[in-house]
Design brief:
The protein is mainly beta. It has strands at residues 44-50, 61-67, 76-77, 82-89, 91-96, 102-107, 111-114, 121-124, 131-138, 144-145. The protein contains no helices and ten strands. It starts with 43 loop residues before the first strand and ends in a 16-residue tail after the last strand.
Length: 161
C-alpha cells in the first residue's frame, strides 16, 4: 500500500525562499557559524541560528542567549515580538510588572513566554555558573533597552542564595 502524501502538499507559494538555483531547501547554520551581530543588552550575548540576517526567514528569530554568573539585564522589552524561551542550563529569574516588583524563577528544562512590549529584567540566579537559554521571537530579535534600575529595586535579588 502506498503512503498518502497528500497532507504534505504545498498550500502556498514559498518561492520567496528559493536559492539562486530556484530550489527551496532547508537552510542550516553550522555550529560555530551563528551570527553574533544581534540586538543586545549589556552582559547578554545573543547569537542567532535562524534570522533575517543570514537565512531567508522573515517572520522568525531563533537563537541562543548566554548570561554570565550573577548577570542581570537592564530593563528592556522586545517591541512587537512575541518571545519564547527555554532554559538549557542554569537558573533564571525574570522581573516584570509595576516597578519590576514581581518575578518568576526558572530552571533547566523550563519554558517561558514573554508577551510583546512587556518590560522585564532577565537574571542569572547563580553566582558561579552561566545561564544558557534558547530563544525565539517573531518577527525578529527586537531589543529595546529601558532606563536602568538599581539592584535594591529588585525584590530578593541582592539576598538570593
Amino acid at each position: 500500500m502506498e503512503p498518502d502524501f497528500s497532507k504534505y502538499r504545498l498550500e502556498g507559494d514559498n518561492s520567496a525562499y528559493a536559492t539562486e538555483t530556484g530550489l527551496v531547501v532547508p537552510i542550516v547554520t553550522r555550529a560555530g557559524h551563528e551570527v553574533g551581530d544581534t540586538g543586545q543588552s549589556a552582559g547578554a550575548h545573543r547569537s542567532s541560528g535562524v534570522s533575517i540576517q543570514h537565512t531567508p526567514a522573515t517572520k522568525l528569530w531563533f537563537g541562543k542567549v548566554r548570561n554570565e554568573s550573577g548577570y542581570r539585564s537592564v530593563p528592556h522589552h522586545h517591541g512587537e515580538a512575541e518571545t519564547g524561551g527555554y532554559v538549557l542550563s542554569g537558573r533564571a529569574r525574570i522581573y516584570f510588572g509595576d516597578s519590576f516588583r514581581d518575578y518568576i524563577d526558572m530552571q533547566e528544562g523550563d519554558w517561558v513566554f514573554v508577551p510583546p512590549f512587556m518590560p522585564h529584567v532577565e537574571c542569572n540566579l547563580d553566582r558561579n555558573k552561566p545561564l544558557v537559554w534558547m530563544t525565539t521571537r517573531t518577527p525578529e530579535n527586537i531589543v529595546v533597552n529601558l532606563p536602568e534600575v538599581g539592584d535594591d529595586a529588585l525584590p530578593d535579588w541582592t539576598t538570593r542564595p
